[in-house]
């Protein structure tokens, strides 16, 4: 069910069984924007059904926080234009060439191109692997841009993170809300641990925003204090 964060911002909670992330909706006076495209067309359909139930229009833009399957495999089913960092699109063009059979998935896992957890969740989400459709975003970002939705603005900026090098952050100044996706998690496509230098950079970057609410990919919204406490606790463990 769609949840209300503010008068302008709503979200569809994630689902652990198939690793569906939280999907966010920013409602402007003239148009709206969604954050992340979900892990399948069924995920998108559920999101749009909830928007319709609340009397909201479909988003004019859908912004991708990073390339991972659970945030992008629903992109072919969204309305409007899609937006991603240049690095995200580079990776999605690579993934477009992947073959989707259980054998090929196992081979990619063995080579370190993909990981077991993702493959397990994909097999749960997709009864027929032939339904998987991967496409790049319509619009690529190299640097910070601002989108005026009417009465509310979204500032988008690509920046490195501890989770994925292609992360895209979204800041909503009127609401003092920062959307980070999975960017403060470990890099599971690496060694599954935090890189100390990348974590230090991420902490400094996040701290530079004037935010009170922190929105992440797979859990409930956090306060600024909760977000910074979490990041510093991870830094302490890396530094030991």
From TrEMBL:
SUPFAM superfamilies: Metallo-hydrolase/oxidoreductase (SSF56281). Pfam families: Lactamase_B (PF00753). Residues 20-218 form the Metallo-beta-lactamase domain. SMART domains: Lactamase_B. This is Metallo-beta-lactamase superfamily protein. It comes from Caproiciproducens galactitolivorans.
């Amino acid at each position: 069910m769609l949840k209300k964060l503010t008068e302008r911002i709503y979200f569809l909670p994630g689902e652990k069984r198939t690793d569906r992330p939280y999907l966010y909706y920013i409602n402007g006076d003239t148009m709206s924007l969604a954050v992340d495209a979900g892990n399948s067309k069924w995920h998108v359909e559920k999101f749009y059904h909830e928007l319709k139930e609340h009397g909201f229009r479909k988003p004019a833009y859908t912004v991708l926080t990073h390339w991972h399957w659970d945030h992008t495999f629903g992109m072919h089913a969204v309305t409007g234009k899609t937006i991603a960092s240049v690095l995200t699109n580079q990776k999605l063009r690579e993934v477009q060439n992947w073959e989707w059979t259980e054998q090929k998935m196992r081979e990619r896992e063995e080579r370190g191109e993909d990981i077991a957890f993702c493959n397990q969740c994909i097999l749960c989400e997709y009864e027929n692997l032939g339904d998987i459709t991967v496409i790049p975003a319509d619009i690529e970002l190299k640097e910070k841009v601002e989108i005026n939705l009417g009465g509310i603005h979204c500032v988008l900026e690509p920046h490195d993170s501890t989770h994925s090098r292609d992360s895209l952050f979204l800041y909503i100044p009127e609401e003092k809300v920062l959307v980070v996706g999975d960017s403060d998690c470990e890099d599971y496509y690496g060694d599954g641990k935090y890189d100390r230098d990348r974590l230090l950079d991420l902490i400094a970057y996040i701290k530079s925003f004037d935010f009170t609410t922190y929105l992440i990919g797979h859990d409930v919204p956090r306060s600024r204090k909760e977000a910074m406490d979490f990041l510093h606790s991870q830094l302490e463990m890396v530094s030991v």
